[in-house]
Amino acid sequence: MVAQLRKIIETYGAEFSYSTLDPFIQGPKALDGISLQIGKGELVAIVGGNGSGKTTFARLLNALLLPTSGTVYIDGVDTKDKDHLWEVRRVAGMVFQNPDNQIVGTTVEEDVAFGPENLGLEPEIISTRVRNALREVGMAKHADAAPHLLSGGQKQRVSVAGIIAMKPECIILDEATALLDPAARKEVMDLICRINREEGITVLYITHSMEEAGLAERVLVLDAGCVVLDGVPSEVFSQVSRIRELGLSVPQVTELFDQLRQEGFDLPEGVLDEDEALAALMGEMYAE
Ligand SMILES: Nc1ncnc2c1ncn2[C@@H]1O[C@H](COP(=O)(O)OP(=O)(O)OP(=O)(O)O)[C@@H](O)[C@H]1O
Ligand SMILES: [Mg+2]
Questions:
Q1: What ligand has the least distance to the C-alpha of 20?
Q2: CATH topology of domain 7-230
Q3: Sign of the Cα pseudo-torsion (39, 89, 33, 240, in order)
Q4: Does ligand 1 come within 6 angstroms of the Cβ of 55?
Q5: CB 43 within 8 A of CB 193
Q6: Which atom in ligand 1 lies closest to the alpha carbon of residue 27?
Q7: What is the pTM of this model?
Q8: pLDDT in tens, the chain (288 residues)
């Protein structure tokens, strides 16, 4: 029997409408009935066009917003339960797009200590957690540096350290790599894949990069506030025309293979990276 993963995130018919915050806000619901479960240790990418509801969904998971209808459970706790709000925020930590908006300390160390301090932990425990978190993200030697002098990638790694120091079960990143150059993007993606793999932390990351989405174990595609595709990347990205209809693209190599298939080459669907592509091309060459 396959062991059931403990569910860290469960949503049942979750809806959200910004008009509940301000009646002057018009427009359709930002989220229109999202029901899904995410097990402990999963690595999940969330993609979708502008305005499809990705950020709103992330805010619901961290109880920054409460569903206007339906329910969101984080590690079994209903986010509407006011008595457990800080528990929800500790379990599901968020990293946002702009690292400059997340800096709260005058040194890197102080910045990372902010979260655990708010949990009311003992000073020795805080300093151990801060040290470990900085080591984990490869920023230990910058502990005394002023955060605003760091590079974008370093700042995002410090943001991730600030979340790790709170020992979350789950980290949600909302386009955390969007403002970074390619090398820094890779640094941050390598880091989040590693903490997922080595620490077993559940990671959900929102991205507009289909290459980054291809690194996940599971991809959720949002459109008009609904999850329209949910599966392993090779399955999701094999639906090239459906993805295009949604105004999205597939990873470049998947796109190339799709075109070659249309030219009559016998190649597999849903190829995501160069290694897989090379293996498939070699297979095709030797088959002839
Ligand atoms: N603060 C807000 N007030 C009013 N409407 C909002 C607010 N934030 C988002 N919306 C609306 O809710 C819907 C979902 O927006 P959301 O920001 O969740 O999309 P997104 O998928 O994160 O988009 P993007 O890729 O541009 O970040 C959109 O129609 C948007 O206009
Ligand atoms: Mg967004």
A1: 1
A2: Rossmann fold (3.40.50)
A3: negative
A4: yes
A5: yes
A6: 29
A7: 0.92
A8: 455 678 999 999 999 999 998 888 888 899 999 999 999 999 999 999 999 999 999 999 999 999 999 999 999 999 999 999 988 988 999 998 888 888 889 999 999 999 999 888 999 999 999 999 999 999 999 999 999 999 999 999 999 999 999 999 999 999 999 888 888 889 889 999 999 999 999 999 999 999 999 999 999 999 999 999 999 999 999 999 999 999 999 888 888 888 888 898 888 888 888 888 888 888 766 665
